[in-house]
Amino acid sequence: MQFQDWFVNGCDASVLLDDTANFTGEKTAGPNNNSLRGFEVIDSIKSQLETSCPGVVSCADILTVAARDGVAALGGPSWNILLGRRDSTTASLSAANSNIPGPGLNLNALISALANKGFTATEMVALSGGHTIGQARCLLFRNRIYNEANINASFAAAVKANCPRSGGDNNLSPLDTTSPISFDNAYFRNLQTQKGLLHSDQQLFSGGSTNAQVNTYSSNSATFFTDFANAMVKMDNLSPLTGTNGQIRTNCRKTN
User: Fold this and answer.
1) Position 50 confidence tier, pLDDT thresholds 50, 70, 90
2) CA-based angle 188:135:171, to the nearest 5?
3) Where does Ca(2+) 2 bind (predicted)?
4) What is the pLDDT of residues 164-178, one digit of tens each?
5) 106: pLDDT confidence band, cut at 50, 70 and 90?
């Protein structure tokens, strides 16, 4: 969720805004619709904070800290976060549709998409390791499991059981089938055996320039953790609203 937020207009919690009669947010954008989950967790955190210290902690800061603490709680690294972000009063459906990297991108397109935001290919691979947790919709990987050649046959067969050729678009499968609720380096080991769920996942290990980095992370989780944490710190600081810009929303789903 944090990635989908900052990749549009920076760390401003625009992705949390609900549609209204005269406002269209980012939740129905192609990369987000029926894919982003956990909004109610942010709501709960915000509600508790508003009770104890109203008008102090922004939704953007909540999203940033929740992402870090969620990773740490599942066994991953932690990192220091600067606080004081404010929340946007707008969102951009068009930017969400055009800027967020899709699951069908090839390696060069992935590298370019992150470079447009100031991230290196190394940081792109490290951030992709976030797919060691989470799930994806059948719609987003159907073409890969039925039509691509660089996929482990038994893995494809297992995933097909929950993702038919037609229907079941919203059926979920874990991005990392080895340890789906542990933040570890299994995602990269899966790529080595052609068990990447999304086309964009497997592109990181398909004979291209990032193969060596996948091999490094597969054999050294500490290196992955360090690189991931550093990339997240960089991401956390991407175009935040501060000072008098934006607002501190009382409800993360709507502007004040």
Assistant:
1) very high
2) 135
3) 132, 176, 184
4) 999 999 999 999 999
5) very high
Binding residues for Ca(2+): 5, 8, 10, 12, 14, 26, 132, 176, 184
Residues 6+ apart with CB under 8 A from 100: 4, 7, 8, 29, 31, 32
Average pLDDT score over residue span 21-50 = 94
Asked whether the whole model's pTM tops 0.70, one would answer yes
DSSP letters spanning 188-205: HHHHHTT--SSHHHHGGG
* Domains by residue range for the chain, with CATH: 1-100 (1.10.520.10), 118-233 (1.10.420.10)
Strands (E), 84-178: 135-137, 172-174
Residue ranges of the annotated binding site are 5, 8, 10, 12, 14, 26, 101, 131-132, 176, 184
* CB distance 178 to 132 below 8 Å: no
Q: Report how far residue 94's alpha carbon sits from residue 48's, in angstroms, rounded to the nearest whole number.
A: 33
Beta bridge partners of 172: 137
Q: Which residue ranges are tagged as binding site for substrate?
A: 101
The residue with tokens 């955190």 is 45
Residue 212's pLDDT band, with cuts at 50, 70 and 90, is very high
